[in-house]
């Protein structure tokens, strides 16, 4: 009995590296099916562990209360996490966004695919803000890893980072920094779906509890195909179909949820598995909404602050705006939200939109 089991597990163990070795030759390699290497995985684990350990030594959901009650009155910051595999097309617009804002109110981190020759700005707010990065592929778990690397780096770097906004090179701001800061950290009315209110605190203009702004949908039409893309039972038992969620890849998390995300090992084991069908494989749109709906459902608003236009989508890409469409009316329309007082960011914009955007930066975009 014992020896049969032993032989069985031994041969299983032996076949794993053989499979690993043969698989890429047997099937033409697809980007989403390139496994994440063990050294990369261990590197990330060590970063996540360090960030989690260090973060547990101070409060993880700093509220206005700790903020007000502490004698030194340290300001809370928003960490802007830029995830890119090309130049930061709108670096000048973001420079203008941050220009003149107190540097103790924000942090910036950039994860740029090291295989791409990304121009590193030699001046402005992005100078020196590039973090240790690894290769990323579209529609693959490498995007989840890159995002967690950004979150962990920002958690480790500064205990004052209270919100973490994920931004791509195709994203633009829809308001001034001051508006974004007030909306996330001060305004008690920004989240119009919130039922949680304490009239006394609201009178004082104090937000009772911070929530993550992440889209979490459970009824999208293609959800079953997305769930089964990794194999019908591949996600079991950790994630049943009833628990599987989808949402926009771009979100703004609280420190508490950022920490939950980098501490996760259970769901990651499933989501890092390669898909067998490329056309329905977008793990980065599922991992974060599924995880947070399981571990902190009440801590999430379930909608995003990053406006995106999915009408006429093709090949998994949302609509991309081009220069002739970039007008003050477009900015005003993109701000309009059914869930909050305004959207704060929008995507996607083609790189040549920089010029028309800069032309109306002060007169429209940063005028609240
Ligand atoms: C990267 O880009 C810079 C500036 O565009 C150029 O000077 C340099 O040769 C490029 N390097 C590679 C490896 O392509
Ligand atoms: C999904 O559910 C939400 C909230 O219950 C609803 O607003 C939305 O219209 C639903 N979407 C679809 C595609 O059924
Ligand atoms: C969304 O994209 C479609 C084209 O697919 C366009 O006609 C429409 O005007 C866009 N909507 C907004 C709100 O920009
Ligand atoms: C807001 O809700 C209305 C009615 O359901 C819908 O037609 C519209 O597209 C929504 N707007 C946004 C920005 O999602």
Structure in words:
Residues 1-26 form the signal peptide. It comes from Quillaja saponaria. The protein has 368 residues and is of the alpha/beta class. The chain has one domain (38-306). The chain is 37% helix and 9% strand. It is built from 14 helices and seven strands. It has helices spanning 2-26, 38-55, 64-69, 91-98, 141-157, 177-185, 199-203, 223-228, 255-263, 266-271, 287-295, 328-335, 354-359, 361-365, and strands at residues 77-84, 106-112, 161-168, 172-173, 252-254, 306-307, 345-346. The strands form two sheets. The protein has a four-stranded mixed β-sheet with strand order 2-1-3-5. The chain starts with a helix and ends with a helix. Mean pLDDT is 86; it is low at 16-29 and 62-73. The protein binds 2-acetamido-2-deoxy-beta-D-glucopyranose (NAG) (4 copies). Residues 219, 221 line the site of one 2-acetamido-2-deoxy-beta-D-glucopyranose.
Characteristics of this structure?
single chain, four-stranded mixed β-sheet, alpha/beta, 14 helices, 7 strands, globular, 9% strand
Précis, in short:
With 368 residues, this protein is an alpha/beta fold. It has helices at 2-26, 38-55, 64-69, 91-98, 141-157, 177-185, 199-203, 223-228, 255-263, 266-271, 287-295, 328-335, 354-359, 361-365; strands spanning 77-84, 106-112, 161-168, 172-173, 252-254, 306-307, 345-346. 38% of the residues are buried.
